[in-house]
């Protein structure tokens, strides 16, 4: 059994930030459970584009409001607490945060925590040592 307190991850290698978001990784590949689990905050007034070509991601919004755009189809969807979206087709997508958005995210395959978005918003698949 593993118990994690979110604030215990602050300022550790599991606390990853960018200009538009902060992600604290509660479960990583090294835990060996087949997925990773992240608590991610997308800052109010920002726009972030992602394209997880190598991962399936499920995202559950627990706080805030914004808009999700499927960059492949142009469809837009409102985001608010209680909204879940599944990127089961590796869709390139943009999240616009009207207010601070707090998201619970699951990745498969799991991330190691060392991934960095490339110029297209893609994470590489990294193996755990």
TrEMBL record:
Coiled coil: none annotated. It is an enzyme of class 4 (lyase). It catalyses: (2S)-4-acetamido-2-aminobutanoate = L-ectoine + H2O. It comes from the Bacteria. Keywords: Lyase. GO terms for biological process: ectoine biosynthetic process. One of its GO terms (molecular function) is ectoine synthase activity. The keyword NAD does not apply. This is L-ectoine synthase. It comes from Leucobacter tardus.
């Amino acid at each position: 059994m593993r118990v994690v307190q979110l604030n215990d991850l602050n300022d550790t290698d599991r606390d990853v930030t960018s200009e538009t978001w902060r992600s604290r990784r509660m479960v990583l590949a090294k835990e060996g459970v087949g997925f990773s689990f992240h608590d991610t905050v997308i800052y109010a007034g920002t726009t972030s584009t992602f394209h997880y070509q190598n991962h399936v991601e499920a995202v559950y919004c627990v706080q805030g409001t914004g808009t999700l755009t499927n960059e492949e189809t142009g469809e837009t969807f409102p985001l608010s607490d209680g909204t879940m979206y599944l990127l089961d087709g590796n869709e390139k997508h943009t999240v616009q945060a009207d207010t601070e958005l707090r998201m619970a995210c699951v990745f498969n395959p799991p991330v190691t925590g060392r991934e960095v978005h490339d110029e297209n918003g893609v994470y590489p698949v990294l193996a755990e040592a």
